[in-house]
Each structure stands twice: as C-alpha cells, then as structure tokens.
Amino acid sequence: MLEERLRRKRRRRIGVLGAGGWGTAIGKLLAERGHKVEIWCHEEEVAEEINRRHANSRYLIGVDLPAGLEASTDPIRTASGKDCLFLAVPSPFLMNLVSRILSAIDLKDGSSLIGVLSKG
C-alpha cells in the first residue's frame, strides 16, 4: 500500500529520521528513485559528511550517496513538510524521538504517511 501511494505522485518529499546504516540505505534508495529526501542525523559530523561528501562513512562504509539526499540535525525540520516520514532509529530510542517531533504540523494534522523501520 505504501509503495502504491509513493508511485501516485512522482516526486515525494520524504523525511527519514535516523542516519544509521538502515536509515541511510532507505534514504539513498528513495533519493535514487527521484524523491526529495531529507535525513535526520543525531551526530553533526554525520550530517556534514552526507551534505558535503555524499557519504556516511560512520554507518554505511564505501557507499556513495546521491546528491538529492540532504541531511539535517533538526528532527522537527526533517519531519515537517513531508509527504512521508520514516522512523529508522533503534527501538529503544523511538518513543523519545516521536515525542520530539509531535509538534511538526504535518504529523498533527495527519497529512504525512508514517512508516516505522525500527529494529533492535
């Protein structure tokens, strides 16, 4: 169902909260499919490397990231104005992250699709 909704509109605005190996891989795949993807990073140096070098050598070694994948250290910014939002943080940190992003307008009004990709 989610993939079907993603296909209906060519270029979606997507937020990925979590820039570990899993979140970065999902962000890469979505950006390569033509979507505008913003990924939230807990670590400033990871965000800087994604934006400047198009790489995440901390969590996804040896993988080139598309220029269309942008990074931010602000979870509200990453969650706001998105058609879809993927939560890709380890499950022990999920509730804390959700409580931080609840004020994002698209989450409040229910206009963003949300996918939970947590593990561990």
What does this structure look like?
The chain starts with a helix and ends with a strand. It is globular. Helix content is 41%, strand content 18%. It has six helices and five strands; from the N terminus they run H-E-H-E-H-E-H-E-H-H-E. The model has no long low-confidence stretch (mean pLDDT 91).
Low-confidence stretches: none
Estimate percent helicity: 40-55%
Tally of contiguous helical segments:
6
Global structural class? alpha/beta
Shape, principal axes of CA atoms: globular
First-last Cα distance: 25 Å
Portion in beta strands: 15-25%
Q: Helix and strand string, N-terminal first?
A: HEHEHEHEHHE
Instruction: Trace the largest sheet across and list its strands.
Output: 3-2-1-4-5
The biggest sheet, with number of strands, parallel, antiparallel or mixed sense and barrel status, is: 5 strands, parallel
Report Rg: 13 Å
Instruction: Quote the average pLDDT.
Output: 91
Total strand count, please? Answer: 5
Which SSEs are present, and which pair or pack?
Elements: H1 2-8, E1 13-17, H2 21-32, E2 36-40, H3 44-53, E3 69-72, H4 75-79, E4 84-87, H5 91-101, H6 105-108, E5 113-116
Quick gist of this model?
This protein has helices at 2-8, 21-32, 44-53, 75-79, 91-101, 105-108; strands spanning 13-17, 36-40, 69-72, 84-87, 113-116. With 120 residues, the protein is of the alpha/beta class. The chain has a five-stranded parallel sheet with strand order 3-2-1-4-5.
List keywords for this structure.
alpha/beta; 120 residues
